[in-house]
Specification:
The complex is a heterodimer. By secondary structure, chain A is of the alpha/beta class. Chain A has nine helices and ten strands. Chain A has one domain: P-loop containing nucleotide triphosphate hydrolases (Rossmann fold, 3-Layer(aba) Sandwich), CATH 3.40.50.300. Chain A has a six-stranded mixed beta sheet with strand order 6-7-8-3-9-10, with helices on both faces. In chain A, strands 2-1-4-5 form a four-stranded antiparallel beta sheet, with helices on one face. In chain A, helix 3 packs across helix 4, helix 4 crosses helix 5 and helix 5 runs parallel beside helix 6. The relative contact order of chain B is 0.11. The radius of gyration of chain B is 24 Å and the shape is flat. Chain B has a single domain, classed as Orthogonal Bundle (MetI-like fold). In chain B, helix 4 packs antiparallel against helix 10, helix 5 crosses helix 7 and helix 7 packs across helix 9. Classes of the chains: A alpha/beta, B mainly alpha.
Chain lengths: 243, 267
């Protein structure tokens, strides 16, 4: 995957969230966005997802520039799988229905085909017996895995994760991270916002640190985590690795 | 029989209050409640110096029956119509067209803030008259529907707004259109929130239809008033009137309670 951001800016009211973000990554599979809260990493992810429009600047994926108009964005979002921190799933539907809804209504699969695709993915994630349960009867980790199943069922060209484990217990965090790592090994392209440095180190081939709306440093994990060049990166790493 | 056993028939201690009550005990206490109510009625009526005149009023039973059927007809039509109006007004309130939002707000505030009695008279004697429109039934039906619709639109709007932002975000992320988002995500979740309020509103609508008697629509209350005037009797007309309305409103309440159970899901 090739991702290029040029002079991306975004503010919410008075608050500048992205301040001239430039990023040019060739041929990566997994990009991890790290950095302090409010640094702009989630906003960058949401702009990539087509859920937020930048005030100025451009973003292209595999040399296709994303056009930030509602009609084009709708088409763009349909090719991307996004998994949020929590509350992804629709509470009034079963796990299976949560997966078949976009397949049937957005991607126009026949109900029987959609169901089959959903069952295969649930099986793969070891969730077969939970297909008929509503999200409220699933554990946090199971819910997040169903959300991931929903995201990959549409065969997205890129998978985005916005702090997928921040709302989970450590044990459940592990089961979700395992699934993400599996996807990575399959060769899928991922962008994830995470606070799990060890995990970022393992799966990412590029890590970008955002702080104050700017990319402070970007590079492979060995460089950025083990041998940071910038003072801000060093401070950030020191702070989160302390505990 | 120990005192505790007897007490357990009538009293549940605070730590047991979420446990289901056995049906026998339910029946006993319902009977008790009815008994207390009957006692109050019996006492009140026994003190009343009133010449009951059921026979004369009974002769007009077909009159009551026709009125009741008319009320049933107008209420059920208004029920459907007001739900549609409420839905349109609620969606207009969320529309991108600002004038439509303003119009919806204006409608809701004007209608909720003024008495139905005034609205009915105004609609019939001023607006319908200006258009040389004479059909009382239609004017009444639309006025009543517009009146209820204003309240229903606020109920629906509340329901729509109760669906969390994260749900809308998920719907957007998977690529649902706005229409599909309402269809598959918002309405199925909102309906559960709005049912209890909607049931109350429907019961109100049925009772409010009685005000249509002021423009001489021959509905249930109008019939009772006519019989009352013809026979010089009051309570013999009003008691059947009350019972007649109860027969209409009770099923609505029970039906929505059933629906509420059916649409329930854990969160």
């Amino acid at each position: 995957m090739r991702l290029r951001a040029t002079n991306l800016c975004k503010s919410f009211g008075q608050q500048i969230v992205l301040n001239n973000v430039n990023l040019d990554l060739d041929n990566f599979h997994t990009l991890a966005l790290i950095g302090p809260s409010g640094g702009g990493k989630s906003t960058l992810l949401r702009i990539i997802a087509g859920l937020e429009k930048p005030d100025s600047g451009t973003l292209s994926l595999n040399d296709h520039e994303i056009i930030y108009r509602e009609k084009e964005l709708m088409a763009h979002r349909r090719t991307i799988g996004t998994v949020f921190q929590a509350f992804n799933l629709f509470p009034h539907m079963t796990a299976l229905q949560n997966i078949t809804l976009p397949l049937e209504k957005v991607h126009r699969y026949k109900p029987s085909d959609a169901r089959q695709i959903a069952e295969v993915i649930l099986e793969r994630f070891g969730l077969s017996e939970h297909g008929q349960k509503p999200p409220a009867q699933l554990s946090g980790g199971q819910r997040q895995r169903v959300a991931i199943a929903r995201a990959i069922s549409i065969k997205p060209k890129l998978l985005l994760f916005d702090e997928p484990t921040s709302a989970l217990d450590p044990e459940m965090t592990a089961e979700v991270l395992e699934v993400i790592e599996e996807l990575r090994e399959e060769g899928r392209d991922l962008v994830l916002v995470t606070h799990q440095m060890g995990f970022a180190h393992r799966v990412a081939d590029q890590i970008a640190l955002l702080s104050g709306g700017k990319i402070i440093e970007c590079g492979p994990p060995e460089q950025l985590l083990d041998n940071p060049q910038s003072e801000i990166t060093r401070q950030f790493l020191a702070k989160i690795l302390k505990y | 029989m120990s005192r505790n056993t007897v007490r357990s028939w009538f009293w549940i201690s605070p730590d047991e209050r979420d446990r289901p009550v056995p049906w026998q005990i339910q029946c006993l206490n319902w009977a008790l409640a009815f008994f207390l109510l009957a006692l109050l009625c019996f006492f009140s009526f026994s003190r009343l110096r009133y010449n009951w005149n059921w026979d004369t009023v009974g002769g007009y039973s077909s009159f009551f029956w026709r009125g009741w059927l008319n009320t049933l007809k107008i209420s059920s039509l208004a029920l459907v119509l007001s739900t549609l109006i409420g839905l349109v007004a609620a969606l207009a309130r969320k529309s991108g067209i600002l004038a439509l939002r303003a119009l919806s707000r204006l409608y809701v505030e004007l209608v909720r803030g003024t008495p139905l009695l005034v609205q009915i008279s105004f609609a019939f004697y001023v607006i319908a008259d200006a258009f040389r429109f004479q059909d009382r039934f239609t004017v009444g039906l639309f006025t009543l529907s517009l009146f209820s619709g204003a309240f229903i639109s606020e109920i629906i709007r509340g329901g729509i707004e109760s669906v969390g932002a994260s749900q809308l975000e998920s719907a957007r992320a998977i690529g649902l259109t706005r229409f599909q988002t309402y269809q598959y995500v918002i309405f199925p979740q909102a309906i559960r929130m709005i049912l209890p309020a909607l049931a109350g509103m429907f019961a109100n609508l049925i009772k409010d239809s009685s005000l249509l008697s002021v423009i001489s629509i021959e509905e249930f209350t109008w019939s009772a008033q006519q019989v009352s005037a013809l026979t010089y009797s009051n309570f013999e007309c009003y008691i059947p009137l009350a019972i007649g309305y109860l027969i209409l409103t009770l099923p609505i309440t029970l039906w929505t309670q059933w629906l509420e159970k059916r649409t329930r899901y854990e969160t």
